[in-house]
Design brief:
By secondary structure, the chain is mostly helical. It is 68% helix and 0% strand. The chain contains 5 helices and no strands. The chain is globular, with a radius of gyration of 17 Å.
Length: 116
């Protein structure tokens, strides 16, 4: 069974595409629309390829290009993941605070290792 494609929030998708388009102005708008269905929706690359009667390879390459760009330009430490979750506002505040604390601890550990 193939592993599921990571999902991006709409904002993450827009930021990645905007930056990609700046570096590659010929990035195809139709392919971007197809990739958006996969990365922010409930569809797989195969489903989109069949729905729009396009090559699976084209959809999958575009999805991977956007994902790679997103992960290459985010500040996530190696081995960390970015996941879109739906929580009550109060819980989201706690999760974001925990994330900030973990990132600070990770950065401190990294700096300490660099000074040895």
């Amino acid at each position: 069974m193939p592993k599921p494609t990571p999902k991006l929030t709409a904002d993450q998708f827009k930021k990645a595409v905007k930056s990609l388009k700046e570096s590659d102005p010929d990035f195809d708008a139709f392919r971007i629309e197809l990739a958006e269905e996969v990365l922010t929706g409930e569809y797989t690359s195969k489903m989109i390829a069949e729905m729009y009667d396009v090559s699976y390879m084209i959809v999958n390459r575009t999805v991977n290009k956007i994902l790679d760009y997103h992960f290459d330009t985010t500040s996530l430490p190696k081995g960390w993941v970015c996941e879109a979750v739906e929580l009550p506002k109060e819980e989201m505040v706690r999760v974001k605070e925990l994330s900030r604390e973990l990132k600070k601890a990770h950065q401190a550990k990294k700096r300490k290792a660099a000074t040895k």
